[in-house]
Every structure is written in C-alpha cells, then in structure tokens.
Amino acid sequence: MLTKADIDWSQETFIEGEGFPKDTLGRAQYALFLTNFLANEGYTPPSTSKEVKRNYVLNLNSEWGSGKTYFLKRWSEDLKEHFPTVYIDAWKQDYSDDPLMTVISSVISQLKEQADIDEAKSDFTVPKRVIGLLKAATPALIKTFSKKYFGDEDFIDLSDVAADAVTHLLDEHEEKSKAIDDLKISVAEWVSFITDNPQGNKQYPAFIFIDELDRCRPSYAVEMLETIKHIFDIEGIVFVVATDTEQLQHAVKAIYGEGFNAQLYLGRFFDSRFSLKAPDLKGFLEAHVDHTKLSGAFLDERGVKILPPNPDGKATLRNISVVLDAFKMQPRTAIQIADRAIAILSNMPSGSNIDLLMLTTLLCFYEEDSEQFLRIVSELFESKNEEKLVTYIQNRFHKYKSNILVEVDFKRYGGTLYYNDNKVYEASFFTYLIEIFSSHFDTNETIGFFDQEHNDNPPKKKPFYGFKEALQSCNSEESVAISYLKDLYNVEKYSGVIPAQYQDYVELASALDWIDGDSSSGDA
C-alpha cells in the first residue's frame, strides 16, 4: 500500500519539460486514495490469498476547471515508480482516427521506456492478426506503425497487404475475435515483462490513463470507449478515463441522437465513477489567474492605485473571488472576468485610481445582464425601475455573507490612531455594496454611513466626515474597514472615476475573450 511519502505534491515539479506547481488544492490525497483503491481492485497478491488479476475501469468525472489534467499527469508520473503506467492524451492523438492504434502505440512506447528496452529491439511486438483490427482508411499511417512495432518473424509488414485484404479481415468475425484474443495476450505479456523483471520494483496492476476524452471528436470518443470496453478488458490492467461526463454525454448524443440515453450508455463502460470537485473559487482563481499583476509592487511600478489597496496580490484576488462568488459565476466565466479586470489595470495610464471591487462588480453585471448594467452606469436605475439601486442591492444580496479584506494603513494618519502600522480588517461585501457601490451610481447620494442594520427600505444615511472622526464611533472591524474605504474614496479621488469611465472600461474589456485552447497543467 502506498503512503503519503509516495505521492508528495508539496513542491513544484517538471514532467517532460512542463512545469507543474505545488499542489495548493489538496489533490494529492485523492491520488493516494485512488491508487490504493484501484490497486486492490486490479490485483490480489499471492501473499494475501490466491493471486487474482482483474480488469477495472474508473471514470474520473471532472468538470472544467477542477484541474483534471494537472491531477492525472502528476498522479501517473508518481505511479511509474511502482506500477507499469501509461498516460494517453486522447485529444492530442485523435488525428490518428483510430483509437486502437493510439492505445497500442502509447502502451508499447511507454512500457518499453519503463522496461528500459531499446526502441530498436522487438521484445514488444504485435501479432499479425491485430493488423486486421486497425482501420484500412489510412494504410500509409498503418504501414509506418507496422514497421516500427511489428517484429519480423511470424509478423508481417502492412506494406505487403492490400487495403482490400485488411477490410476483408475486419469483416470476418472469427478472425477479428482471434485477433482480439491475440492482442490481449500480447498486452498481458508486455505488462508481465515489467512486473517479472527481478531488477525492477514494479507490481500489478498496470495503470492506463486516458485524458481529455470529452474534448475529442464525438466519433473518436465513442470508439475509444468501445476499444477499452471490448478489447482492453485485460486482467491486471486498470483504466482511469478522465472526462467531463456531462460534455461526454453531448458527444454520445451527437452520434446517436438527442433522444438517446447517454447517461445509461456511458454507465456500461465504467465500474465506478469518482468525481473530482472544482475547488472553492478563491483556490480556483489562484491556480488560473496571475495574481502578481494585482500585487502592490506591480501596481506601484505602473503608478496605478486600487481600492481596497492590499500589498499582497493574493488578498486582492481573494476580494475579486468574493465578488464573483456573490454573482455565482461559473469557473470559465470567473477566469474571464478576473483576467478582464487585470487587463484594465494593466492598460491604465500612470496616476490612475480605480475601485477594483466596483469594477469587478460591474463586469459581473455586464456578463449577467448588459441592460441592467447600462441602467446602473447611466444612473437611470430608478427612472427605469420602481426601486432605487440601493434597494435592489439590498434585496438581492442581503443573504450573501462573505467578507472582503481591507488592509488599513494607520501611518497615513500620523500615528495618532489605534496602530502605528498596517492591520487587516474584514468587511461584508454586502455592506460595501450598500454603502459605497450604490452611492456612486446614484446622483442623489453621497458617500456616508448607512444605518448599520440596513433595516430601512431604502436604508437611511448619515454624513461621513473622515476616518479620524468616524473611527470614534466605530464598534466593529467592519465599521473600521468601511470607514477607511470611504476616507480613501474621497481623499484619493476614487469618486472622480465617473460612471461613464467605468462603462468604457467594462465594455472594452468584455469584448476580449480568452480561448481555452490546449489543456495545461494549471487546469484543465
């Protein structure tokens, strides 16, 4: 049984030249649990009782953004020390148009490497019958494949076989059945070649990881599943097929029709399913967004000030995540909005000030409902609706309890207040919306104190005279933080960023969409 020492992701690592940061989402514990679970399902050693080898297929259900590619690559790399292990990125190889060829070639090349066998040697060969299982549609490609992996004796070069003959073999049920049996025997022998090596320390079962299947062409994805189910149900081998199962169901329906029961169909391919949940939004954004561009040092260098100011870029990103969470933004959209906010900051001229909470809130409103956004920035909310903006904010967000972080710099006030240095306070994002956001977009309002309980509808407001004066009546961390924000708002001229400027920023940045593109270690 493996231990935490065998799967340790506490440090950054490199796999085939690609960097993988340390595990900040606690995923290593899942890899350890699944390893021991699948090892027990795939193999019972003779020391325990009678030796038993079994085939097992696990569906790792992982929605976009939960980090399945990072998870699978680090996991499979660690397992190579203990088990015969193959990692296949199905999406990168679906150009072959033949899932069987993809799996066979990957198994041979990767197991050869783990067995320390020279590529030129033919210890790992494929019986000639197996040629009939490969598609005849690409004879040139199969010819190249056959030269690389098929031995000379008792094996044949596909260049000597006409495409019509291959098609004929595929049509012959008995020949196909024998070919499958031959392939299973060969794969089992390749695995045992590694596990029986007295100089090695690898044991059963063998692990084969299939990643990115949901991103493949629907026909290729379905054929890959059929290949695993009917050809690679080999004792002593466990498959881990990572998918966004909901997306894979769409692929199945694309082949069999919208009325087809894709969920039931997929269920027949897997023995069990393990769902890798998406992390909390804060951790998710830290893994996907460059928070260094939100740090105090980076912004100071560019001459840009944000509200609330936080030297630590992660604290600022955390505040952004609080806003995104309040709007219940989906992972893809959350990344887009955070990147848009950073793009705006990066393109602001030196000497600019902007309320980042306000900007992010407006980006969310725009993404959610562009007409509602226009009502807010046009300061026409009340004329277009029966309720004031502050009342709308109160009714919509009053149940949202998450807090933003505000680092108060007491040195600004000459050391005459509570502290002579900085201190971090928390304040409700809801309170910020009521007392600062709504006032900025209401021409009849000014920044002041709302009734702390917010029981009035709309809440009543008292004048704000400055942080020193306000601090005398502050009775909570939240009131200190909000008072500090209001003081900065007036003294640092954040109030000077008029709604029309926010509108320009948001509409310009929202025209920019980042394409998911290829999967990466960060994500995907």
Automatic annotation (TrEMBL):
Stretches assigned to the KAP NTPase domain: 53-282
Pfam families given in the database record: KAP_NTPase (PF07693)
Domain of life, source organism: Bacteria
Protein name: KAP family NTPase
Organism: Marinomonas sargassi
